[in-house]
Structure formats: C-alpha cells, structure tokens
Amino acid sequence: MAAAGSSMLYSLFLFVATLSLQEMFRAKLASSELFTILGGFTSSIVFLTLLTFIGNYQETIGVKTGWGAVIIAEAVALIAASTVHRVCITTCFLFSAGLLYEVNKLSGMTDVKAKRV
C-alpha cells in the first residue's frame, strides 16, 4: 500500500488533471445524452480523487472528520458537474454513491485483514 504522502500527491495530480480535462471538453460532454452521462462519470472521478486527497491529508495531520470529507468532495464534484450540464449533476451523484459504496466495502475488507494479522 502506498504511503499517505505519496498517495496524497498522486490523488491531487489526478484531481487537477481530471477537472482540467473535463472543463476543456465540457462542450463535447454536453453535446449528446451519452456524453452527458460520461460527464457525470468524470465528475464522480473528481469526487473519488478529491476524497482520496482529503482522506490522506487528514491521515497525515492526524485529524478525522468522518462524513465531512465526503460532503466536501461531493459538493466540489457536483459543482464541477454543473459547469458541464444539468443532467451531469444527477449522474455524478449516482456514480459517486456507487463509488462511495465500493470504497467503503474495500475499506471494511482491509480492516478485517489488518485485524487478523
């Protein structure tokens, strides 16, 4: 598993790159129904990378906010989705909920493995 510092930097880089590319291609992402759904998915990737950054930052400084990090990351992702198209907001929320469920499930699996050792 990567250290918190390097994971924090990688996730920040991916956050900036994903957000920049989404803003560069927002006219294309808003051009059709399929691309609008893709725009919501890219916004959920923004959510995931920002959530990873915030979580690693909190781990580095020794502070935990619980759901606060999720709410901040989701708000930023929904604002980014709103710059593309209205429908992107809904699809971003749905994709983000699915990603959050999977991340929570993976986190629970690693906690169980860590407790066994």
UniProtKB/TrEMBL annotation:
<keyword id="KW-1133">Transmembrane helix</keyword>
<feature type="transmembrane region" description="Helical">
    <location>
        <begin position="67"/>
        <end position="100"/>
    </location>
</feature>
<feature type="transmembrane region" description="Helical">
    <location>
        <begin position="6"/>
        <end position="22"/>
    </location>
</feature>
<comment type="similarity">
    <text>Belongs to the KRTCAP2 family.</text>
</comment>
<feature type="transmembrane region" description="Helical">
    <location>
        <begin position="34"/>
        <end position="55"/>
    </location>
</feature>
<dbReference type="InterPro" id="IPR018614">
    <property type="entry name" value="KRTCAP2"/>
</dbReference>
<protein>
    <submittedName>
        <fullName>Protein KRTCAP2</fullName>
    </submittedName>
</protein>
<keyword id="KW-0472">Membrane</keyword>
<keyword id="KW-0812">Transmembrane</keyword>
<dbReference type="GO" id="GO:0016020">
    <property type="term" value="C:membrane"/>
</dbReference>
<dbReference type="Pfam" id="PF09775">
    <property type="entry name" value="Keratin_assoc"/>
</dbReference>
